[in-house]
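Hi R.,

As promised on Friday, here is the backbone we talked about, encoded as structure tokens. Could you run it through your design pipeline when you get a chance and send me back a sequence?
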């Protein structure tokens, strides 16, 4: 039986539970053949199937990122798509891939940045994560990406500073933390309430590195 028959849309469901259950099943079994079939159907003529497939793939990524890292090129195609569900879903998957294979996400840096500049709020959130985990990969990647992340933090909307500073943390280390803290301290006057408290917590975490 085709694994596509287990997708939410195939089952006549409007919720995501079948997709999450399928992702857990495929990740647990490390069923590479079925995962390949899911990846191939990212470009199914039915957009509901496309949406289910990208959901299953990034849910697998949450559990075992290595199982989806072979499909990085597909995820890059997704973030270049006109279908917003595929764009932010593809970026969500790339954020997981970057944790285990920063080399492959670094090769696609321009596409990731472009999608961040033009994407939805969710796409931007996951782009920051993708970039941060890629920057964590090695010193060279960090030197290229970290200034870009700092520029973003210095100019993004006040309501985004807390979340995006938290998502940048994987890229922060002992040698670059001073610049990171300086940028956040410069943003403090723009912040209040919960956002301010979260940024102060991030500053404290960075200081301890």
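Update: got your reply. Pasting your designed sequence below so it's all in one thread:
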């Amino acid at each position: 039986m085709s694994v596509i028959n287990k997708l939410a849309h195939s089952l006549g469901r409007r919720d995501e539970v079948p997709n999450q259950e399928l992702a857990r099943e495929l990740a647990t079994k490390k069923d590479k053949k079925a995962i390949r079939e899911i990846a191939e159907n990212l470009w199914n003529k039915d957009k509901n199937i496309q949406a289910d497939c990208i959901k299953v793939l990034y849910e697998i990524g949450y559990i075992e990122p290595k199982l989806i890292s072979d499909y990085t090129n597909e995820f890059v195609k997704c973030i270049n798509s006109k279908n917003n569900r595929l764009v932010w879903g593809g970026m969500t998957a790339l954020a997981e891939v970057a944790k285990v294979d920063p080399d492959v996400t670094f090769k696609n840096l321009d596409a990731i940045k472009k999608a961040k500049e033009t994407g939805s709020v969710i796409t931007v959130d996951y782009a920051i994560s993708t970039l941060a985990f890629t920057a964590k990969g090695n010193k060279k990647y960090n030197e290229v990406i970290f200034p870009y992340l700092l520029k973003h933090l210095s100019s993004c909307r006040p309501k985004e500073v807390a979340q995006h500073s938290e998502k940048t943390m994987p890229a922060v280390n002992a040698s670059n933390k001073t610049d990171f803290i300086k940028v956040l301290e410069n943003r403090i006057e723009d912040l209040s309430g919960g956002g301010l408290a979260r940024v102060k917590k991030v500053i404290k975490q960075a200081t301890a590195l």
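One thing I noticed while checking it: The longest helix spans residues 47-63.

Thanks again,
M.
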